[in-house]
Design goal:
The complex is a heterodimer of chains A (158) and B (120). Chain A is an alpha+beta fold and 158 residues long. Chain A has 4 helices and 6 strands. The chains are: A alpha+beta (158), B alpha/beta (120).
């Protein structure tokens, strides 16, 4: 199993864990999701986000990675890898999620349902994109032919 | 810890029966199907009074929450209810942020949740 976790950075600055970086590469399968969530929780605690914000970031990343497993890699056997790169800055945490899918999955342009519409509807799915966009401060996607999707999630430190 | 463990017990409340599901682990894209099958099996068997004890649930994703909402609507159509007991602070935050707490009742203990059915 291709799997890799690295952590580096100068943690002696005034801002907590400023410049710290984390990197994780896991198979693009659903059983990798707990490992991804564990790392995100570790990172958000290192950056001193409170429990509410930590929970939001964990859920946004989990939803984004589940989308890769269920959509971007849906027709690819075996599925490729998911790479998570995180970096703490003085004012924000940036998390990039990369896949090697041959499908452009533009999370930032997909229509998403508002939560009140969802609650009053009979749908069981469709809330993931709402969560990604509403729980993070900035969401940017790009697709590079030959490389795959890269989703950048940003959360500012209050 | 097991990925998702679901313990099912039946609690009599007055002349009714409440199906109590105690979840341990997490509901995500990997374990969702197990959770869905358990809830679907109960509702299709005609059980419309459901109590979910989430004390040992560490995470639930949007699809799991969507299933809760769909099941809530289903049992309400049959004059039943779906309530939640002992939800962690972390899941409570998400539940509140998404507005689910406007519809689904939550209680600090199983006993208090069961009382809800006794009063119905």
């Amino acid at each position: 199993m291709a799997e890799q976790l690295e952590q580096s950075g100068n943690q002696s600055n005034a801002a907590p864990h400023q410049d710290a970086r984390w990197n994780l590469v896991v198979p693009g399968t659903s059983d990798s999701l707990p490992q991804i969530r564990d790392l995100v929780t570790h990172i958000t605690h290192c950056v001193h986000f409170n429990d509410e914000v930590s929970g939001k970031i964990e859920m946004a990343v989990d939803e984004a990675c589940a989308n890769i497993v269920e959509h971007a890699y849906r027709d690819e056997q075996p599925p490729g890898e998911i790479e998570l790169r995180a970096q703490a800055f003085s004012d924000r945490l940036e998390i990039s999620i990369l896949d090697h899918a041959h499908t452009d999955f533009p999370v930032d342009h997909k229509p998403r349902m508002e939560i009140d519409d969802y609650i009053s509807s009979d749908q069981r799915r469709g809330m993931g994109l709402f969560i990604i966009h509403s729980f993070m401060d900035d969401v940017r996607h790009r697709y590079v032919v030959g490389h795959g999707n890269e989703l950048l999630l940003v959360k500012y430190i209050a | 810890m097991k990925e998702l463990k679901i313990e099912h017990v039946t609690s009599p409340v007055g002349e009714q029966e409440v199906q109590v599901l105690r979840l341990e682990g997490y509901v995500d894209a990997h374990t969702f199907t197990e959770f869905e099958e358990e809830l679907t099996k109960l509702v299709e068997a005609g059980h419309h009074n459901l109590l979910l004890d989430l004390e040992k649930l560490t995470y639930i994703n949007s699809t799991g929450l969507g299933l809760l909402m769909a099941t809530f609507r289903q049992v309400r159509q049959h004059n039943g209810d779906l309530v939640i007991a002992k939800m962690s602070d972390k899941i409570t935050n998400i539940f509140n942020l998404l507005g689910f707490s406007r519809l689904i009742s939550t209680y600090p203990t199983e006993e208090e949740a069961l009382q809800k059915f006794a009063q119905a």
